[in-house]
User: Fold these one by one.
Assistant:
Number 1:
Amino acid sequence: MIPKVEFHVSWIYNEQWKDWIKIYPKFANIPFPEFDDIQKYVKEVQPQWRKVEDMILKEMSHVTGLKWKEKKIVCYVVGRALPFSDPLTIGTYRKKEGFIDVLTHELIHQLFIQPGNEDKSSKTWKYFYTKYKAETHKVKVHVPLHAIHEHLFRTIMGEKRLQEELDWTKNIPDYGRSWEIVQKEGYQNIIKEFKKRLN
């Protein structure tokens, strides 16, 4: 089963982000999009996502050995946000490809926590947490995630987008470090280690 991502624009949820995001200096002076503009943005980006949705979600399941269990995944789109996976929340991005790449990142997190997948991958996570015990929690989680994302970039989205991701995440220490590990060890090797420990 491959789920469908259902985009929601909630006025109430959006208002919370409007106030909360101001505590981050890089967002403090950036105008927060109007609610109507967020709705228009979703209408523009949704068809682009639909073109690649099945390919990305099928390949994500195939390459990880994990299955989707839910028929629908709700994604809240707000004006500005620090994206996260549960509840799946993403802000608007200047480039629509950036939105799709961030959504893909968060959906890999979502696949990890689908019902039954945490139990199925418990030995896998124990392995990564032991191997990278000197790294932060965020780095440990993102080493396999970025390996999976690199596979998706190379097979579906293209290497140009991969390079843009690598360039962008250099400014985020934990993300940059996890990508550094993936580049050094090889995304295929990391995925192999991920899959062979599944229950």
Note: The two ends are 20 Å apart (CA to CA).
Number 2:
Amino acid sequence: MDLLRGLREKLRFIESMHQQATASFVEKKRQIENSEGDFDSSGWDPDSWDGTPPFLEEWQEADEAINLLGQACLSLVQSAFKEYLDGCVALTSRKPQRKGKESWFDAYRRFFDEQLGIDWHKSPVPLDSLEEINLARNDAQHAGREFGMIRYRDARHQERFPSGIFADAMFTTMAERLPFFPVPLKVTADSLTEAIKRVADFCAFLDGYR
């Protein structure tokens, strides 16, 4: 059973799906920024300006669509990661058991260490970089508000990774001065690619013990 190959195929598909799903929104933003096609603002009358640039609402909606698609794909990446770990566990006659308020991630780390003799801390991928993916996934699933589509990083995520790869950079500086200032969750093509690389490299490390 080639678990690593199955994981890599999932991750490849997720990244490809993200690229195709976001393509039209990326193009819309590009056209707005370059005043092209349906978003040609050359005839815009600056004397009528009310403080809102032309097509701002369309640009913001396209940007948020890209973000939400990134969050959905990040959740799939995290699921693929856990499914790989579950596949490894299924090859044994044992099962991870949580202790107290232990997270599922810590329970699996302890299981691999105590039961399989694999120390995750020896991985070339820092464990906190995997934790960052888990926290971002949790925010994508649970940190919405009553109005709007924006998800925010929760207090633990913000404290652990104040300038992490899933933070909206426009708000991180303000959050440094105002600790309780909410920072939106932002999943870009680059941060999704980085998350995929972290998971793939970590699971390749684990697969070396099989």
Note: The radius of gyration is 21 Å.
Number 3:
Amino acid sequence: MTKFFIKNKGFSIVELLLYMGIFTILLTVILQMFGSIFDIQLESQATSSVASDGRYILSRFSYDLSRAQSISFPASPGDLGTQLSIVINGQTFIYSSGSGNLVLQNQSMDTSDQLNSTETSISELSFLRLEGSDGKDAVQVSFTLVSEATQRSGKKIVNFQTTGGLR
């Protein structure tokens, strides 16, 4: 009679250790890639929110100032203030900051709008009234936007400044 010997097939301890080592290295590389992707996404989000909010605020300021008939505050050329009050079509609009937000109030309609998104906060807001060469005054606005998204290198901080005048 022929005897068949059944061999138990399996992995030796050396093979198991080798596979576990390779798997650990592969897992570490994949986790580092995901971490890098997450960091890049946070940096992109912070940069994008600060840039888009800055562009919007500057364009809104220029648009409103070009439509304004007069500047109420700061009162005279050379004055510096944390608020800007302008009159457009008989309605008074006030730019001011509070709790890290830039707010535009329409006093005639008793409404207010937040001009920056929830992803940014504003600081160091100032308005400098300038005397225009043609007798029409101008205002220089400057402010700092800070991203709320924290990236590995810290928060994204950008300073903005522009000048606009009455038409």
Note: Residues 13-165 form one domain.
Number 4:
Amino acid sequence: MMREIEYDFIDEITLKLKAEFGTIRFLEVGVCGAGTARGIHRRAAAIGCPIEAAGVDLEMYRPNPTPAANYKFYGGDSMDAWRQIKDSFNFLLVDGCHCCNHTMCDFLNYSPLVVLGGYCLFHDTALPTKLGKANQEAWPQDHSYAGQPPSSLGVREGLQKLGLLQGYRADWELIRELPSDTGLMGMILFKRIKK
């Protein structure tokens, strides 16, 4: 559920991870079938970069088959699943429930697992537009946890309340926003600059 430009953006991030770390250690919150993890595994293989990946989502979204042999899946609500994870990561993708509370909790619970210099990418961060409202109303109803069309408003509100968008945090730096002209999708990338 991403645009081609967003896949290209993730490709840029994988190249950056290879250059900076020599490996990709990827955690995705909001797996929904693991299409993104499969794509990152394929790209890592193509560029000769070792990868370990994990995903968090409700049990009904457990990928079958898993994206790779070294893939770990943590079933359950993201509000609770973080307690099971003992690994560290250099790339966190937050694409779970789009409400403000989940966005904030997903960041607060999973960002401590990101190593210094690692990245956190949020999906569905687009500013609302008239077209976006119409697109959200037409979106398949089973896409989000609450059975409602996804809204980028909760994600952006959560990022603002966390102080990430305004640059208020000393531990994370906004690197780049990939906007959307449709009012859906969009991405914002942050880098951990301090523990």
Note: The chain has one domain: 4-192.
